[in-house]
């Protein structure tokens, strides 16, 4: 039986029960505790700081295969077969004498043959007059003319060793020329396409290859020189120092410039200008332009114009680019490039220059 609430204490909060609110709070606290326990258990089971143990891979196995023995000896095929000698006996055949020869021999007599011959007779009818003979010796002047052959002259007809036989890989070029006949020349020479690394990567070196092929074909057709095209190398290749003449293509980088400087100062020759090597000659060789290396016009009687074909008045030039304008003139001369007096490069005139610009 409930105790009635006095009416004087009746209010709006008289029916408030705190246990109702605490019940909801206890429920959320219990759920939070269960969730925290689950999270901690997962962290204990799955430890992110634990290092994974790597298993060692299985070592590689090597399989040895033993070849079956050969049935024949290794040098059996290299032996030169020798024919077996056979015993051959010759049988002597007795020829029968001819009867006419026997009769002629029997009738021949040495005594009768000597009796038939006539005796030797000789009549000497010669008279000498001693008084008319002059015994005084006379001395006459005789002109003796002769030419002295030089000791170091090469006789092409008496040459014992063929020059082309020297092409064994040791020498890149060897030429023998008759001093009396410049076109009587024979030997061999090897060419290679020398390009820069940038030109080789861009693929702009086809023109240099065609020019070298034309040069090789011309030497093989019009001269006695056996020319060959070796392939392509770059400026910084060590084989560059073994090539006597090059046709460069492309601008070299720093390492290639140093190698080109070493090539020119060691005896190399360039078909073209050496303007792209001026910096290397000053930096790596310590040369001074104008004093140690320079470029000048080759005179018309330079030996290069008569080394094989005799070009009167210098090399032929082109008239392309000739104009009536006074500021435009064709390059009507051949330019030679020198390093300490040695010709290291040559430029032929094409008539495409503008001297005023």
Automatic annotation (TrEMBL):
The chain crosses the membrane at residues 28-49. Residues 191-344 form the DUF4159 domain. InterPro entries: DUF4159. The keyword Transmembrane helix applies. Keywords: Membrane, Transmembrane, Transmembrane helix. This is DUF4159 domain-containing protein. It comes from marine metagenome.
């Amino acid at each position: 039986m409930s105790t009635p609430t006095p009416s004087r204490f009746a209010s709006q909060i008289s029916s408030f029960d705190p246990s109702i609110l605490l019940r909801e709070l206890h429920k959320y606290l219990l759920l939070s505790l269960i969730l925290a326990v689950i999270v901690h258990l997962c962290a204990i089971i799955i430890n992110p700081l634990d290092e994974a143990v790597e298993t060692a891979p299985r070592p590689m196995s090597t399989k040895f295969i033993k070849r079956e023995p050969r049935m024949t000896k290794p040098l059996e095929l290299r032996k030169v077969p020798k024919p077996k000698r056979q015993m051959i006996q010759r049988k002597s055949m007795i020829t029968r004498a001819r009867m006419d020869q026997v009769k002629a021999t029997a009738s021949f007599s040495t005594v009768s043959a000597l009796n038939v011959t006539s005796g030797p007779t000789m009549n000497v009818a010669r008279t000498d007059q001693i008084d008319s003979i002059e015994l005084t010796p006379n001395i006459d002047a005789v002109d003796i003319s002769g030419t002295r052959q030089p000791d170091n002259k090469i006789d092409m007809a008496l040459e014992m060793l063929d020059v082309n036989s020297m092409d064994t890989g040791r020498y890149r070029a060897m030429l023998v020329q008759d001093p009396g006949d410049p076109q009587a020349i024979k030997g061999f020479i090897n060419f290679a396409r020398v390009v820069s690394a940038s030109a080789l990567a861009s693929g702009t070196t086809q023109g240099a290859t065609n020019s070298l092929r034309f040069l090789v074909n011309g030497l093989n057709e019009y001269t006695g020189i056996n020319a060959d095209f070796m392939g392509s190398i770059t400026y910084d290749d060590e084989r560059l120092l073994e090539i006597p003449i090059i046709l460069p293509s492309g601008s070299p980088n720093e390492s290639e410039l140093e190698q080109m400087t070493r090539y020119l100062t060691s005896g190399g020759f360039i078909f073209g200008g050496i303007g792209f090597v001026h910096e290397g000659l000053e930096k790596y060789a310590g040369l001074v332009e104008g004093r140690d290396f320079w470029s000048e016009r080759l005179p018309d009687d330079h030996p290069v114009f008569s080394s094989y074909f005799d070009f009167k008045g210098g090399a032929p030039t082109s008239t392309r680019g000739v104009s009536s304008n006074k500021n435009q003139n064709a390059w009507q001369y051949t330019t030679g490039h020198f390093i300490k007096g040695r010709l290291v490069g040559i430029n032929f005139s094409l008539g495409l220059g503008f001297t005023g610009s």
